[in-house]
From TrEMBL:
This is Urate oxidase N-terminal domain-containing protein. Residues 3-238 form the Urate oxidase N-terminal domain. Keywords: Membrane, Transmembrane, Transmembrane helix. The keyword Lyase does not apply.
């Protein structure tokens, strides 16, 4: 049912937006917090720095430990669910929009004529393989230099963008660059940052001294996430803008003729029962009147 599908897409899109705001906000907050840390003579042993903040009528005193404090508090707040729900809701939206209407929104038959299942398989494989390739490079000696690593990743993304434009529609190709980058970010949280922090917590509970490398690796991936945030926002917002001006949501098409004036009408394009090429190009309609 197209109406049910529209409501599911609406719910997934808003869940995606809300959780992404929470995730991006917390990411920017901690980068700003790190930059604002100050050292003082009365810091506890092992503390790297502290910061006093005022917000909402209250005062906050925050201290950072590069490894961990000698004793853990009874309650720890984990910043992970924002990332998980952002990626899950984004993938659900990808399935509802691009996979369920792959013949219109995903595959460009003017470029290559492949079955729907092949286009979807390429899409999913790019997310999975993209993560493993990124992770392996980060774990290698090559990944020790963040500047060199970021430049290499930029070249990889450009190559992927070219490859996607040979198969997918322009909008789908653009979205997949954002989806691959967002997958790196969320997988960093799920497979690297949180597990490393759990290793530290487990060592502290067992009375062991945690290895500082876990915190260093987590910090590197967290920094990657921060720098990848703005490109991902650009990719997703740009794709959303194109989508809302596209055929399914309504497209404004002018009919220009000599000595005539065109009135633009939003054209609601039917997802089914129309040729995919015509839908992708848009259906020009206008009410003309004599000037």
């Amino acid at each position: 049912d197209p109406i049910v599908l529209d409501w599911l897409q609406f719910a997934a899109r808003w869940l995606h937006v809300i959780t992404a705001i929470a995730w991006i906000g917390s990411s920017f907050y901690f980068i700003a917090l790190d930059l604002g840390l100050r050292k003082s003579d009365d810091l506890p042993e092992g503390a790297y720095g502290e910061e006093w903040q005022v917000h909402g009528g209250g005062f906050y005193h925050i201290q950072k430990y590069l490894v961990a404090p000698e004793r853990l508090p009874d309650h720890l707040t984990w910043f992970k669910w924002e990332s998980y729900w952002t990626w899950l809701s984004g993938f659900i939206l990808l399935c509802l929009t691009y996979y369920m209407s792959a013949e219109i929104y995903l595959i460009d038959t003017n470029k290559i004529d492949i079955p729907v299942w092949a286009g979807i398989a390429i899409s999913i494989a790019s997310l999975v393989i993209g993560w493993f390739a990124y992770d392996l490079v980060c774990k290698s000696k090559f990944g020790d230099d963040n500047t060199r690593l970021m430049f290499t990743l930029y070249v990889v993304l450009v190559a992927l963008a070219w490859g996607f434009t040979q198969i997918f529609t322009g909008r789908a190709a653009f979205l997949h660059i954002g989806a691959i980058t967002a997958t790196w970010m969320s997988a960093n949280v799920f497979l690297v940052i949180i597990p490393n922090q759990k290793f530290v917590v487990a060592d502290l509970k067992a009375g062991k001294t945690p290895d500082a490398k876990y915190g260093q690796i987590a910090k590197q991936r967290s920094t990657h996430n921060n720098y990848l945030t703005l490109p991902v926002i650009f990719f997703m917002l740009r794709t959303a803008c194109v989508r809302h001006l596209s055929t399914r949501q309504g497209q404004l098409m002018p009919a220009r003729t000599a000595k005539r004036r065109s009135i633009f009408l939003p054209v609601r394009a039917c997802r089914r029962g129309q040729d995919a090429r015509a839908v992708r190009r848009g259906v020009p309609l206008a009410i003309r009147r004599e000037s």
